[in-house]
Amino acid sequence: MSNDIKIKKGLDIKLVGEADKVTENAIISNFYSIRPEDFHQVIPKLAAKEGEKVKAGQPVFYDKSNEAVKFVSPVSGEIIEIARGEKRRILSVKIQADKEQSYHDFGKLDVTSAKAEDIKARLLESGCWAFIKQRPYDVIANPEGQPKAIFISAYASAPLAADLDYVLQGKEAELQAAVTALSKLTAGLVHVSVGKNGNSPLAGLSDITLHNVSGPHPSGNVGTQINKIDPVNKGEVVWTVNAQDLVIIGELLLTGKFNAERIVALVGSSVKKPRYFKTKLGSEIATMVYDNGVDKDGNDRIISGNVLTGKQVKPDGYLDYYSNTITVIPEGDDYEFFGWNKPVFNKVSTSRALTFSWLTPNKKFDLNTNTNGEHRAFVTTGTYEEVFPLDIYPMQILKACMYKDLDEMEALGMYEVAPEDFALTEFVCVSKQPHQKIIREGLDLMLKEIG
Amino acid sequence: MGLKSNLHNLKEKYKGTKMAPAFNAIHTFLYLPNETTHGGTHIKAADDLKRTMNTVIMALVPCLIFGIFNAGYQHYAAVDAAAGVIREASLFGNFLTWDNFVVGAWTVLPLVIVSYGVGLIVEFIFAVIKGHEVEEGYLVTGMLVPLIVPVDIPLWMLAVAVIFGVVIGKEVFGGTGMNILNPALTIRAFLFFAYPTWMSGDKVWVHEAVERAGTADAISGETILGAYAQNSSLAGIDYMDMFFGYIPGSVGETSKLLIIIGALFLIFTKVGSWRIIVSTLIGALTMGLIFNGVVDAGWIGESSKFYGLMNVPFWQHLIIGSILFGAVYMATDPVTASQTNKGKWIYGFLIGFISIMIRVFNPAYPEGVFLAILLMNVFAPTIDHYVIQGNVKRRMKRLKVKTA
């Protein structure tokens, strides 16, 4: 059974630097780092001390408010540094990898016969729980909760995002094990969305409800799909898992090992030869970006993730726990003479105010990080609605977050959204408002006040 | 390189000082700033508020140029008319002439300069006091104001009105984006209620008509609306004149053709809301039709003081007065209009509807467009509230279906 989801509102931002479909093994990273900031709202409590040896899959820290949720080391090695910031907040745990990798053995689990509690326990102890997120609030799922459904988007529509059909090729067995396991954790359905014109390895799986999505970005965002398939109501919880993380979950269940391997796309206009790398979570960015990639002294921005939702990382930084893309684009820290009124051909715009990107819908643009204007109050109306397919009033909900009216936020649909749903409205915003930040702070406030 | 790096150094020098916003306003006018994204999306679309505002100004420039020539033309036409010669307007024959331009420029450009000068000074002062950047809202307001006043309005009145409009209409609410009333119309409303003799009547719409009143050289300065309101009509003016704009009126609002071109430009660039423009016109036509029906039914006799304007064929309402200008440039102001798409339809319709109603029922001052828009500005949040409640109710219903 499959259903079609057709998205009309949205915007495909076509950029230069799409990855060629070749995969290289990245240089093996010497150091790995796990940063608690990747796991929003998690207050880390260390499970291993500096100097201690860990195997791949052994916990490094756990969530203070929910001790069952563990975060494990992606490799075997020695914890060499725990960086702390203000008030001794843990910034990152750095692990020096062993030459010979050894894995903690969790034991195989036959997913077809296993009980829900066993699956849950296994995912928790192996650190795979971190891959399961929940809405409302877009945080790691509460293991005590009972989701009404689980959503997986196997279609990436974000600009220059890794092609999930390509990177998940040949992983059918792991994917099947993971979705079967997940299907036991919910009373409802496991919704999997694949590209309509794609050739997704997830299309043939059982124990799922398949949806074919088509249309411009954000059609591949799981938030869009939830809104179209089965929106979250007050008091309900849904879980979401990134398609690529299913592979790690599946492999754990099949082999008993936590194998943090993942295929990452190196993309962006600053990259000489954009392509895919096989690497591990938390590995050094430097192992990938310099070989046929960017110039060492180039004025570039390296992003762990895509250009809309990713995090800026330094060249000596580390791959994010959830990202499967590294984007490198030029910095835009230069002035542009009369940039505000001259005709613009080389930038993307949804208006036609002497901006001519509408003439060349298939052109690939080379955008930099310039804001193209200064921060202003909300002025224009109707612009966000054109790129926002959810049945929610985007500007009104943003304003409700800004003046912190919890009742209004709830009524307007805060339970359904995640910051990434507002990435496109932020991109097109004439007033250059930080939409994702506003939504994140709004969600945090609700989590704190309502829970 | 020279200018760019010099300005950059100056910017760094002034950073954090009181004068920084004032300097930045001029700097960002010359150069798109070197600001990069932090957190959130790493790339941004090409449009910023300056570009949006600039688009509106471009749509207004033809109206301003036409207004300059028309100010001169109406002056000489009225002089001729006083001497008993009724002019036939022709674009190249007697409209685009040097004489017209000189008289027009001499009367209109001071209005533009005062409007921008005074308004921007107020904006800069507020930006410096409150320490925020100079916002672009006034660029459009400053252009609109000279176009919606009579040619001979004394400059000091305009200056006072601009100060009032910017401070009370905008800054007290928190500046651009926060105001409830359209600032340009607030300025016009202030002028209208503070100096009514200069804003209405049969003298103010043509250059020198006021000064010559009561002398041997007296000329008429009446608009078509004024004439209709007194159940009469103006000599020598046909519908094409009204459409092309060879008629007396506020400076920039007479040429319907150029306003339509401006409207198409705004709609094409997606800066103006076509929903508001179209629905305003629909609202105006509806009210016009209702009045025509009233006249046809014989409820209102020719002796009635409302007869003149009620009897105007409904479509003609669009080419007399400022309804078209208001619909295109005033009602569409995104800050003060309804913000939801459905709300925009209701908001626009009511503006058109009420404009024509005021026009007919208020013979003392027959142009009701600015009052109608200001009124709907006040009700726009209410309209939005009910539109959004629809969305909220849908969400509540979904919850009830689930639990039931």
How would you explain this protein's 3D organization?
The complex is a heterodimer of chains A (451) and B (404). Chain A has 451 residues and is α/β, with parallel strands linked by helices. Among the domains of chain A are: 156 residues, Rossmann fold, CATH 3.40.50; 67 residues, RNA polymerase II/Efflux pump adaptor protein, barrel-sandwich hybrid domain (OB fold (Dihydrolipoamide Acetyltransferase, E2P), Beta Barrel); 79 residues, no CATH class. In chain A, helix 8 runs antiparallel to helix 9. The longest helix of chain A has 15 residues. The model of chain A has no long low-confidence stretch (mean pLDDT 89). Chain B has 404 residues and is an all-alpha fold. Classes of the chains: A alpha/beta (451), B mainly alpha (404). At the A-B interface, strand 21, helix 10 and helix 11 of A face helix 1, helix 2, strand 1, helix 3 and helix 18 of B.
Key structural traits:
heterodimer; A: about 450 residues; alpha/beta; OB fold (Dihydrolipoamide Acetyltransferase, E2P); seven-stranded mixed sheet; globular; B: about 400 residues; mainly alpha; 2 domains; about 65% helix; ubiquinone (chain B); translocase (chain B); FMN (chain B)
Task: Compile the SSE list and pairings.
The complex is a heterodimer of chains A (451) and B (404).
Chain A: E1 2-6, E2 23-25, E3 31-34, E4 44-46, E5 53-54, E6 59-63, E7 66-72, E8 77-84, E9 90-97, H1 116-125, E10 132-135, E11 139-140, E12 149-153, H2 164-167, H3 172-183, E13 190-195, E14 209-214, H4 222-229, E15 238-242, H5 243-255, E16 261-267, E17 275-280, H6 286-289, E18 300-304, E19 311-313, E20 325-330, E21 336-337, H7 383-386, H8 394-402, H9 406-412, H10 423-428, H11 435-449
Helix pairs in contact in A: 3-5, 8-9, 8-11
Chain B: H1 2-14, H2 20-30, E1 31-32, H3 49-82, H4 91-95, H5 98-130, H6 137-147, H7 155-169, H8 183-194, H9 196-199, H10 209-212, H11 224-229, H12 239-244, H13 256-268, H14 274-296, H15 307-310, H16 323-330, H17 341-361, H18 369-403
Helix pairs in contact in B: 3-5, 3-6, 3-13, 5-6, 5-7, 6-8, 7-8, 8-18, 13-16, 14-16, 14-17, 17-18
